[in-house]
From TrEMBL, chain A:
It is found in: Cell membrane. The keyword Transmembrane helix applies. The chain crosses the membrane at residues 12-35, 176-197, 204-226, 238-257, 286-307, 343-362. Residues 170-362 form the ABC transmembrane type-1 domain. Its main location: membrane. PANTHER family: ABC TRANSPORTER PERMEASE PROTEIN MG189-RELATED-RELATED (PTHR43744), OSMOPROTECTIVE COMPOUNDS UPTAKE PERMEASE PROTEIN GGTD (PTHR43744:SF4). This is ABC transporter permease subunit. Keywords: Cell membrane, Membrane, Transmembrane, Transmembrane helix, Transport. Gene3D superfamilies: MetI-like.
UniProtKB/TrEMBL annotation, chain B:
GO terms for biological process: transmembrane transport. It is found in: Cell membrane. It comes from Frigidibacter albus. InterPro entries: ABC_transporter_permease, MetI-like, MetI-like_sf. The chain crosses the membrane at residues 6-29, 50-69, 110-131, 143-162, 199-221, 251-270, 303-322. Belongs to the binding-protein-dependent transport system permease family. This is ABC transporter permease subunit.
Amino acid sequence: MEGMAGTKSRLTWAVNLAALLLVVLWTIPTLGLLISSFRDRDQIAASGWWKAALPAEQNEIFRAPPPETAVPDGPLWVLDGNVFGEAGGSVAAFGLSAREPKAFAPGETATGRAGDTLTVAEDGAFRITYPEAPEAGRGDRIFVTTTTPPRLTLENYETVVVAQGLGRAFLNTFTVTIPATVIPILIAAFAAYALAWMRFPGRALILAGIVGLLVVPLQMTLIPLLRLHNAIGLDKGYLGIWLAHTAFGLPMAVYLLRNYIAGLPREIIESARVDGATDFEIFRRIVLPLSFPALASFAIFQFLWVWNDLLVATVFLGNAPDQLVMTGVLRELLGSLGGEWEILAASAFVSISMPLLVFFGLQRYLVRGLLAGSVKGG
Amino acid sequence: MEQLALASATIVIGIFGCVAWFWGSNWLLDRALPPRGANAGRNIGRAARVRPWLFLGPALLVLAVYLVWPVFLSIWLSLHDASGQRFVGLGNWRWLMADGKFRESMGNNLLWLLIVPAAATFFGLIAASLTDRLRWGNLAKSLIFMPMAISFIGASVIWKFIYDFRGEGQAQIGLLNAVVEGFGGAPQTWLTLTPWNNLMLMAVLIWIQTGFAMVILSAALRGIPEETVEAAVLDGASPLQIFLKIKVPQIWGTIAVVWTTITILVLKVFDIVLAMTNGQWGTQVLANLMFDWMFRGNDTGRASAVALVIMLLVTPIMIWNIRTARREGM
C-alpha cells in the first residue's frame, strides 16, 4: 500500500511539474515583451530582458582630453576627469586596449608603454599621468565597462502614444471595432430566429449554405470587394470596412445563434404564439433576452477578431493617420525600425492590452462560444 | 476629439439603421396585412410567408454580395489579365503551375498543414489532460489560452524578439540565442535559416492555437463517462494506458473537429509570414503570395488564381462540414 501511495504522489509531482513547464513556456514570450516595454533602448540592447532586475553591464569607449591639456604636478604631467561627465554611474572594469577592455578593476593603476599611467575609480573619476610633457595629439582611449542600475520606465509608452501616433490608431481601431461587432449581431440574431423558428421553403438550403460559408477564405473576396467598393464610390473608408467585417462575421454569428436559439424551450415560444404575439414581439421580448449568453459569446469573438485583424484593415482602409489601425501601425513599425525594440514592445503592448482585458474579464463567455461553435462543425 | 464624435455618430447611425429596418419593415407588413378585421386569417397566412424574408433579408443580402458573388467574380478575374480587362483563358493558371514562388508556397503550406494542426492538437491534448488534474488548473488553462487573444501581428513582434540575433561576443537579447549560447552553441539568425525558419514561423501559430485545442479537448475529456475510466482502473491499467487506450479513442470526433478548424486557419495564415519574413528566405505561403500579387504586383488575374487555389484547398473541409451538419439534423 505504501508503495502505491508513493507512486501516486510522485505522479502528482510529475503532473504539476509538467503543467508548470507548459505554462512557463506559453507565458514567457509575452512576459519578455512586457518587461522589455518598460526598459529604455540602451538597457534593451545591453542585456536580455530576463536580466532586467540586475544591473546592466555595458562596454564603452571614452576618449580623454588631448594630452597637451595635462597640467604639471610635481615631476609628472596629470590629466583628471570623469568618464561619466556629469551623468554618474559606476565602473566595473577598465582597460587600455580593445583586446583587453576589462584588464583592470576600478582603483588599480594601469601602466602604458611610454610609462604613462591610468587609474579609473569606481565612480568614473580617472587620472592619467605622463612622465614627461606629452606631445599634442588625440586624447587617449579609455575602455570602461560600466554598470547601470536596473531601472523601469514608462517613457516608451509616452513616446508611442504621443509621437508614434498610437493614440490616434487606438481611436481608429475602436471606430472600426464597435460597429463591426454590433451590426452583425443584430442582423444575425434576426436571421437566426427565422432559421430556427419559422417555416419557409429553402430553409435547409440556406442553413447548408451558411455552414459552407463558414470556411470561405477571406483572400477570395478581397479583390472583388475592393472593385465593388471603388465602383459604387465607397472607396477606402469606415463604411466599407464595417460592411466587410459584418459579412465576414455573419456566417459564424448566424451559425452560433441559430444553434442556441433553436435550443430554447418550444413551449415558451408556442404559448406566446397562442397568446397572439407576433414573431417580431416574440423575438424582441423572449428570444433576445434569453439568448444573451450566445450573443455575448459571439460579441467577444467578433470583437477580438476585428480588433486583431490586419488583412481586412490593410485592404479596406487607407494608410493616412485618420484611418490607420493599431495592427497597421505595428506592421509599419516592424518594417521601418526593426531595431528599435523599446518602441515596438510598447506599441505591441498597447495594441494587445485591450484584447487581453476582454479575454481575462470575459473568458467564460469566450470558452462557451468556442465550445458551441466548434464541437459540432467549425 | 472630432474623430471620436464622428465615430460615435456613425456608430449610432449604423445601429439605428439596422434597428429601423427590422422594426419598420415589420410595422409596414402588419399595416399592409393586418392580422385582424375581415381578412385576418388570409392576412396572417400571407404575412407568415413574407416575414421570414424580412428577418433574413439583410443577412442574405450581405452574404450574397460579400461572400458568394466574390467567388464567381474571382473565377472570372483569374481568366483575365492583370487589370481584369482582357481575356487570357488559362494563362494565369499556366503561369501559376510554372512559377517557382508558387511551388515554394504550396510546399510550405503543405508543411504548415502537416505540422501546425498536429502540434497544436498534441500540445492542447497534453495541456488539457494535465491541467484537469490540478488544483491550479484553471489558472494554468487561462495562461495557456491567453495567446488566443493576441493578434497575429502582436504575436509576431513577441516572437521576433525571441528570435533576435546579435553577433557573437555581444550580449544576446533574444531568448532563443541566449539559450543556445548558454548550452555552448553559436547564435543563429533564425529567421533566415532556410528551411528551419519555416518551423520558427509555425511555432508562433502553434503557440496561439494550443489554447484553443486545449479548451475544446478539455471539455471533451470531461464528458467521458466515469465508468469507462473506473473499469480500466479496476483492471489495473496505468495512467498512461488509461489516457491512450480509454480516453483518447472516446474523443476522436472532437480531435477531428479541432484538427480541421486549425487546418482552415493554417491555409489562411498570412499576418505572421508578412510580419516576420514577408515570404523571404524560402518562407512564402499562399495567402501572402496572393497579397503580394494583389498589392505589389497589382495583378488581379494572378492574385485571384492564387486565392482560388486556397479556396480549392478548403473545399473538401467545407463539404465535410456541411455533411456533418446535415447528418446532425441542422
